[in-house]
Amino acid sequence: MYTVMHLAGRPCDFGGRSDVFHKLDAKDLRAGMYIVNTGVSWLHHPYLYTAEGELTCRELASLLEEGYTEAYVDLSRCRPGTLSPELEALVPSVSAGDTAADFLPPPPRVALEEELPKARAVFSMSLNMAKDMMDTARRGTAADPAAAEPLVENILESLNRNADALFSLCKLRQTDDYTYTHCVNVSVLTVMFARGLGMNENALQAIGLGGLFHDVGKALIPTRILNAPRRLNDAEMTVMKRHPQLGCDYLRQYRNAPAEVNQVVLEHHEQYSGHGYPRSLPPDSISVAGRIAAVVDVFDALSSKRVYKEPMPLSKALSILYSMREKEFFPGMAERFIRLLGVYPIGSAVELEDASRGVVAEANTSAPMSPKVFLVKDKDGKDCGRILCDLSNGACPPIRRIITAAELGADPASVLGVPR
Asked: What digits encode the pLDDT tens for the residues 315-359?
């Protein structure tokens, strides 16, 4: 018996290419199958085999002996003759170069320190645009959503130069202005996610615009409900759940808007379970853009500072996303987002096995457990400056655990040079 795991519930076209993974029980694995490392084995999933590559007879025997129960397989890269007729029928017709690895983002083209000032300017301009849009909607006057198109182009250009710069501003920059920063964060993160999935630039542009405007409908919700300092009652929650539809209606003035803009605005609270809102759509009716936005919206809400709570550590937020897979989120979506950010996203405070401590400076999508780290405390707890260590080459011991900024004894944003 096998479980079919599609990226978004079924084969999807991202810029002309397909990316479909399948999860198999260990007893159904065969030598010659190609194992995919989704980067999620650390999240309450100790029996998921994740050694990426073509499975050998020796490895197959070993994984069964060690008690692994399942693995993700890329059927398009399995050796001929290893798949059952049922699985053969599910193999997407893609060229030899269209593999899962092709969807990982390219390495940074410039250093983080070089990109941060440019990214900060892009973030500030986007923040002003989000404020203007929300304020205009609140006044009930017409807006010009198309004016934000150049800003999303700037976001994409910054991500292409060094995605960690904008990401670090989204997640390490402290602010109480959640309503507006959340819109910018969702725009940046949806573009990052869609880019990591291999979507073309037109789609990236549209999804980024949708992210920037995804909560514009909240400007049309009564302030007494929007800012209630307590849990909303059922009647108030019914009103709040109208904000995606209100936002979509407001954006009808955006003539010739790409479809993905409205999909993000209208569907970012729809769920794979069919219990989302505002329309409780069945899974197959939710667009790819809506599926992407749903993951990003929850992640940013969990990991952002609010008036009533401190930001959740990124690793904890990712763990919660993983627990929501195949319930709120489509099969494969949370896993792919986790792999994109890495097990230890940039800015995470960590302790290594030798008790030295530091801040993750760059995630490693090909080896999620081995990012680059700026060490700031040695094994004796003494300041050691700011030493860059690449854990993937064995120069430093592996990470033992995630720690808090207080345990680190330093501000992760300052270590990375991220402006507050």
From this structure: 888 888 988 988 999 888 888 888 788 778 899 999 999 999 999
Closest CA to 75 of 27, 36, 26: 36
- Taking residues 154-171, what's their average pLDDT? 94
Q: What Å distances lie between residue 108 and 199, 331, 350, CA to CA?
A: 18, 29, 22
CA dist., res. 360 & res. 413, Å (int): 11
Strands 48-49 and 70-73, bridge-based pairing: parallel
Q: Are 183 and 130 in contact (CB under 8 A)?
A: yes
394: left (phi over 0), alpha (psi -120 to 50) or beta: left
In the DSSP assignment, the letter for residue 372 is E
- Tokens in use for 89? 């029928």
What is the average pLDDT across 249-267?
Answer: 90
Helix residue ranges per DSSP H, 343-396: none
Comparing CA positions, the residue from 109, 95, 104, 111 lying closest to residue 16 is 95
Statement: residue 213 has pLDDT above 70: yes
93 DSSP 8-state letter: -
Cα 170 from Cα 167, distance rounded (Å): 5
Cβ count within 10 A of residue 315? 22
Distance CA 3, CA 71 (A): 10
Beta strands in 255-390 (DSSP E): 349-352, 357-362, 372-377, 383-390
Q: How many CB atoms lie within 10 A of CB 259?
A: 12
Angle between helices 178-196 and 288-303 (to 10 degrees): 130
Q: Say which residues have a Cβ less than 8 Å from residue 322's Cβ, sequence separation at least 6.
A: 40, 43, 44, 45, 334, 335, 338
* Torsion from C-alpha of 378, 314, 340, 66, nearest 10 degrees: 70
The answer to whether residues 272 and 327 touch, using CB atoms and an 8 Å cutoff, is yes
Structure tokens at 290: 């809506």
Name the one residue in this structure whose structure tokens are 């792999």. Answer: 339
Residues 300 and 185: beta-carbon distance below 8 Å: yes
